[in-house]
Amino acid sequence: MTYPDDADGQAIAEIAAAGVDLSQPLIIRFAIAVPNQSSAEASLHALAQNGYPGEIDFDEGEPDFDEAEDDPEEFGPMWTVYVEMVELLTYDNVIRIQNELDQLVEPHGGKCDGWEVAI
Known about the structure:
The chain is an alpha+beta fold. The protein has one domain: RraB-like (Alpha-Beta Plaits, 2-Layer Sandwich). Helices cover 36% and strands 27% of the residues. It has four helices and four strands, in the order H-E-H-E-H-E-H-E. Strands 2-3-1-4 form a four-stranded antiparallel sheet, with helices on one face. The longest helix has 15 residues, at 91-105. It is globular, with a radius of gyration of 16 Å. Residues 6-117 form the Regulator of ribonuclease activity B domain.
């Protein structure tokens, strides 16, 4: 099977090539980047109100002083909201869900920032 030539399509192709049975639902974990705690809490509330329960994670960051000069925000603190759901891993599902999540969190400064599956 062929997939679109973008990051999502390439990721699904790699998962399929690893032998994962994509005809079975998988746990897909979506990451939503938010700028601060209040944005994280508002995003979490909006998601839950629309059937997407999730959790908030705060990472204090750990600067690598050799690389911190190149990109000072690379290793800084960051807030993330995670949403897990059981779905068939198809390109259309991933795009649809990311778009739905974006619509819910953009008013609060959030943006879907990728996804992963446990295999």
